[in-house]
Amino acid sequence: MIVEGFRMPQWLLEVNVVDGPVPAMIWALTALVALAVLLRRRRGWAVRAVVALTLGALVGAAAVVLVTRSGALDAPLPPPSAPWLAAGLALVGLGLVGFWKASAWRRVLAFILIVLALLSTALGINGAFGIDRTLGAVLGVSSTEALDSLTGPHQSGPQTGPVYAKWTPPSDMPTAGKVGLLTGPTGIPSSAGFVPRDASIYLPPAAQVANAPALPLVVMMMGQPGNPDPQFITEALDAMASQHQGLAPIVIVADQLGDPNSNPICTDSTTFGGVSTYVNKDIVDYAKAHLNILTDPQYWTIAGYSNGGGCAFKWAAEYPKIWGNVASISGEEFGGSEDPATAVQQAFNGDQAAFEAAKPAAILARNPGAYAGHVAVFTAGENDPDYVNAAQRASAEAQAAGFDTTTYVVPGADHVVTALRGGLPKAFEILYPRLGLSKP
């Protein structure tokens, strides 16, 4: 992997920056350096230190209030963010005042404290969100190794009965799914000007054996800002596969952004290129040509989290002959809902009517009768009220159009990692019988 011209080793990209020992070591080092800065004999130092710590903490608290009230993140900050900001900026304040009438070595120590305090705060807040769990994910560089090859489709023709009913796992079947980066010879070409980051693929245990059965397909998209990271859907489906004889869908985790800070609003545009064409034509063609999958729309699911969930709902409405199912995990009600004015200008060239026509509700209304038998699952965290409301509205729109819908509020969850780890398992629990992977 390459980051700004530097080739980072795989092990470094895979360093866990949420649950592993690295954050704990950095936090402990920060505390030790803070103690060293604090222990100083000079008249007036104690008062200055207390004032600096207090002012820093107040700045951190003010930053939380500002971010929350401005809606800059389009979702509530995870609860641990406030104490991390307050504590981190308090230590930055201590570091700054540590330069006061200090010797050279104490100034170096104060500078180190400022750097460590900022790093510790970043690690703490990142851990509170829980989405970017490795150094590679934080840097926007995939730590997934490239997949060398795909064997191509093995079966064709109509599906005769559910997969689970005629499947006996062989003794040599792996116990976990395999994940690979689709890049180079195995990459998915984009035909309409959209430049995606590399997709990845999840192959469940049942897909990794000789004479593997044709399996359902899922296309999954993550949030914005964010990366096309397969970790969370891999966790969910490995757990499901362990309970269902190794059976799970094959998953392509795709990029609907092109850049973590861009938002193409789930639509082809001159600004961002053909993102809809990429997902609904290029990926579809690629899957049919390269994967051992069932081709009936009943077995195809488009899924997403947050921004990806909004795109999934839109495209399930727009392409009912491709996607028989949709799973929106804390999804936006429609693309651009967090900043409609910017969406209209960037993706629709200022055409408000085109923006309105691209909303799922408008698309559903234009296709009466097209969704009979289709399944839609909408989830959101209990502590994420705006997205709970969005899920309920989207579910009502889908149900009125003919979808068989389920809305699930994840107990105790907010908009970040808890939403994914609560929403994805529930969605596939509902979808498994529909996909022929378990008994109804």
Task: Provide an overview of this structure.
With 440 residues, the protein is α/β, with parallel strands linked by helices. It has two domains: 19-129, no CATH class; 144-434, Rossmann fold. Helix content is 44%, strand content 11%. It has an eight-stranded mixed β-sheet with strand order 3-4-6-5-7-8-9-10, with helices on both faces. α7 (231-243) links the parallel β5 (217-221) and β6 (250-254). Residues 1-6 have low confidence and may be disordered.
Question: Which terms summarize this structure?
Answer:
440 residues, alpha/beta, Rossmann fold, eight-stranded mixed beta sheet, two-stranded antiparallel ribbon, 10 strands, globular, disordered N terminus
Brief summary of the model shown:
The protein has 2 domains: 19-129, no CATH class; 144-434, Rossmann fold (3-Layer(aba) Sandwich). The protein contains 14 helices and 10 strands. The two termini are 44 Å apart.
Q: Give me the side-by-side strand order of the main sheet.
A: 3-4-6-5-7-8-9-10
Q: What gyration radius follows from the Cα positions, in whole Å? A: 24 Å
CATH architecture field of the largest domain: 3-Layer(aba) Sandwich
Overall number of structural domains: 2
Determine the oligomeric state from the structure.
single chain
Secondary-structure element pattern, one letter each: EEHHHHHHEEEHEHEHEHHHEHEH
CATH topology of the largest domain: Rossmann fold
* Beta fraction: 5-15%
Total number of helices: 14
Largest sheet: 8 strands, mixed
- Measured between the Cα atoms of the first and last residue, the distance is 44 Å
Mean pLDDT: 91
Portion in helices: 40-55%
Relevant CATH superfamily of the largest domain: Alpha/Beta hydrolase fold, catalytic domain
Runs in which pLDDT lies below 50 for 5 or more consecutive residues are: 1-6
Shape, per Cα inertia axes: globular
What structural category characterises the helix and strand content?
A: alpha/beta
Number of strands: 10
* CATH class term of the largest domain: Alpha Beta
